[in-house]
Structures are given as structure tokens and as C-alpha cells.
Amino acid sequence: MDNSIKKVDIIILGAGISGLTLGYHLHKKNRNFLVFDSNKTKGGNILTKISDDYVCENGPNTLLLNNQSIKNLISELDLEKEIIYPNTNNNKRFLIKNGKLIEIPRSIGEFLNSNILSLNAKIRVFIEIFFKKSVRNTSVYEFFKRRFGKEFHDKLIEPFLTGVYAGNSHNMSIKHVLNKIWKMEQEYGSIIIGFIKNKAGNKMPKSFNFKSGLSELTNKIYLKIKDKINFKSRITSISKVGNLYEITINNNTKYQCDKLISTIPAYALSEIIYDNKLAQTLKKVSYCPIHVIHVGLDKEKIKEDINGFGVLTKQSDKKNFLGIIFNSRIFPHVAPKGIDLITVMIGGTRQAELIKLDKELLFNKILKDVRQLISYEGEVLMRNEFTWKRGIPQYDLNHESVISGVENFLIKNKNFHILGNYINGISVSDCVEKAWFLSEKL
Ligand SMILES: Cc1cc2nc3c(=O)[nH]c(=O)nc-3n(C[C@H](O)[C@H](O)[C@H](O)COP(=O)(O)OP(=O)(O)OC[C@H]3O[C@@H](n4cnc5c(N)ncnc54)[C@H](O)[C@@H]3O)c2cc1C
């Protein structure tokens, strides 16, 4: 072997939550590994910015305690005491109707009483139990339109998916985006019956954050494995040399390893992988852009009742944003006293063009929408912005072929593994779980 090529047992590409979690579990097992990330810091999409007593999340805003891996990770890192749960007095969620905030019903009783849906649409919802199960995977739009009616989709499902994926429900695959709902339909023939049999409504997982923001999680992992992480290390190529994998960093340094784990985004891996078929498969994964604006507003001058998580929009609302999070109403400590911190999300597949606007112009457009919606005439007391050019991967109708393309590659390339948010779950807790599963196998 060329002496200038360094050798290590395991290499992890990417120091987002997937790569960090995997590294942490390997560290516990005393394994010989290194992590490389092109960025100058850790965390990937998890990016908290703290300044002047504001805690702003440029990436995810809350995580879900919905699997044992995330619970264990938090407990092992001694972070349980840092967890904060949303203020339960303010846990409403809003939609927009006739330009005004309207509360999303949280129970069957509230649903029947609310005027979000017309009477016909409400009746149509309960007919769902008579529809046969789907014979094949479809778009989220087709699925809900057939089972619950178009109005139910347009007024409730579309805004919800905008909040999570910022995508287009006409292209999203029901089987992969809402896998639990899909499985329920396949098992019980009806979502309503599935919910009743599983008492699913009672099992909603808890959302949470940490006192100093979500970067507390990635910072804590970093402290455990910092000797193993190399920043400003862009992988510029990956090749196979006999049974080993060879990576080149910044077109210069080379490393070889027995096991290689990629946690970098699909588009990034597609540019450097030696296998053209996998590269073509990965190029099918589209990512939508997200622009995030944080503003601090004078609490007293907000005239609407915004005591809740936030508001989600649908296309017909014709707003320049996808959703707003009323951060300081759910986590009061994230803004100075008397000030409300709110986060506005813009872009997604619906508004990708808006993100290309001059930032000042875009900010003014958004501010105008926000002022109108929450009846605010005061000053902007703080402003922070961040753009994710390729923010959230979309699980589109071609997703099955992405999965099989990746699986075929992995079968032929023993000891190569692929993690990350573009397969098997997008949320941070999904990424943590997948990394833990893999660490058990390695
Ligand atoms: C705006 C936004 C809001 C979100 N909201 C939520 C939420 O509320 N709750 C939730 O659970 N999830 C949310 N998500 C999703 C979640 O944050 C991500 O799915 C998750 O953090 C992805 O982690 P990862 O480690 O798989 O990938 P990433 O965080 O993307 O990390 C990949 C790493 O790879 C590095 N990299 C890329 N190319 C190379 C290369 N060639 N060489 C070396 N390194 C490279 C990058 O620098 C990066 O650090 C949100 C995402 C975004 C963008």
C-alpha cells in the first residue's frame, strides 16, 4: 500500500446527527473510526443560533421522543435535565381561513364543531370506512382524496405536509411519506377503524427541545468523539481498491478503510461515488429549498391570539410563506421578556422561486404578510435569516426505485452502508434510530 495513504477500520462521511450518532455508538464500542465533514462545524441541519438572549433554530425546531434510540441517546448524554417540553397552555395549532387564524381541531368533538370543513366534507370523512384498501401505492393527494374527499386533503392534509416536508402532495408517495397511515389502511382496510383499534390518537409522541436549543444534542455528542472528527474535509471521490474503500479529501489526502458509511445527502454522494448506477439513482432524490426568517416582535403589539405552536398554510391561502412557528409562546425562554420570537418558513416546492428574490425584497414581502395575519404594527426588534438551498429530501412517487437502486448497490458492495434522511425517515429521531441499528450491525 502507498505509505501516503492512511488506513482506518471505519470511515463515516458527514457529521450531521446521523454521522455523529453512529460515531458515538462506535466510540462506546472502542472501534477504530474517523468522521469527515466538509463543513467547519458539526450538526449538519441541526443549527441553533444564540445571540442577545434569543435562541433561534435555523434547522429543526422540535424533535420527537418517538423511539427508544433517541430516548437512550438523551439519557446516556445526561441531557434529560436539559429537555424542555412545549407550554401545554399554548398548544393550539392554526390554519388560515378567510385571511384569519383558525384553530385546528384536536378531538372528534372539536372537529365536528369547527368550521374548517363544510358539512358535506365532514360527512364525507366518515364514509371512509366503506372504501376498499388501495391496490397500489399512490400520491398522498390521490390517497386522501379517494378515502376522505378533496376538501379534507386540501384544507388539512396539504398544510400538515407543508409543515413537515415543504413538498407537493401530488408527487409524494403515501407509502413512504405516511407509512403508518398506509400500513393501517392495508391492515384494516380503513384509517378510521385502524385508529380506533390502535387507539392511535392516544399515542401521540412528545415533542421537545433543549434549554439551549437542539445544537445541545450535537454539541454533547461532539465532546465525546471530537478527536475522531475532521472538519473542512470535503470528500471529493470514493473508489474501491480490492476489498477496501478509498476516499480522497479536498482532492488531496487519501484514506482507506474496511467499512465506509455515507451519511451525506444523496446529491453529494452522487457526485463522488464510483458506481454510475448508484449515482443515477441518487440524482432522482429531489431536495426542496427552505428560507428561514426569525423576527423578534413586541409582544404587547401583537393583537391576534397566537398562543399556540404556529400556523400552516395551503396553496389557496396565497401567502408568501409555508408556515410560522410562534416559538416563544411554546418555549418562553427563547426570547427576552416582553418580546415574541417567531420563525417563518418560506420556499419548499411550492415557493421555490420566491427564495431566488433579493433578500431585502423577500423579507419585506414576508413581513407584510406576517403583520397582516397577526395584526402587528410595531417594530422588528431582531432579525436573523438562513437559507437551505437543498433543505428537505422529497419521498416522491419514484421513491421505490430509489430504495431498490440503493439496496442493489449495497448487496454488491459489502461493508458499504448508507444512512441519512433521504431513506427510511426524515426526522432527527429517525436518523438517530437508523444510526443506532447500524452501529449494532457493524
Ligand atoms: C429547515 C429544516 C427544518 C427541519 N425541521 C425538522 C423538525 O422540526 N424536526 C425533525 O425531526 N427534523 C426536521 N428536519 C429534518 C432533520 O433536521 C434532518 O433530516 C436531519 O437533521 C438530517 O441529518 P443527517 O445527519 O442525516 O444529514 P445532514 O444534517 O444533512 O448532515 C450531512 C452532513 O454531510 C456533510 N457533507 C455533505 N457533503 C459532504 C462531502 N462531500 N464531504 C464531507 N461532508 C459532506 C454536510 O456538511 C453535513 O454536515 C428539518 C430540516 C430542515 C432543513
Walk me through what this model shows.
By secondary structure, the protein is α/β, with parallel strands linked by helices. Among the domains are: 6-44 and 63-84 and 212-285 and 395-441, FAD/NAD(P)-binding domain (3-Layer(bba) Sandwich), CATH 3.50.50.60; 106-200, protoporphyrinogen ix oxidase, domain 3 (Orthogonal Bundle). It has 16 helices and 19 strands. The protein has helices spanning 17-28, 68-76, 108-113, 119-126, 140-148, 150-165, 174-177, 179-188, 191-198, 215-225, 266-272, 276-283, 327-330, 359-374, 399-412, 428-441, and strands at 6-13, 33-36, 48-51, 54-57, 63-65, 83-84, 92-97, 100-103, 206-210, 229-230, 235-241, 244-249, 253-262, 287-298, 308-312, 323-325, 339-347, 380-393, 416-418. Strands 1, 2, 10, 11, 12, 13 and 19 form a 7-stranded mixed β-sheet that branches. Strands 8-7-15-16-17-14-18 form a 7-stranded mixed β-sheet. Strands 5-9-6 form a 3-stranded antiparallel β-sheet. Strand 3 and strand 4 (54-57) form a beta hairpin. Helix 1 (17-28) packs parallel to helix 16, helix 2 (68-76) packs across helix 16 (428-441) and helix 11 (266-272) runs antiparallel to helix 12. The mean pLDDT is 95. The chain binds flavin-adenine dinucleotide. Flavin-adenine dinucleotide binds next to helix 1, strand 14, strand 18 and helix 16.
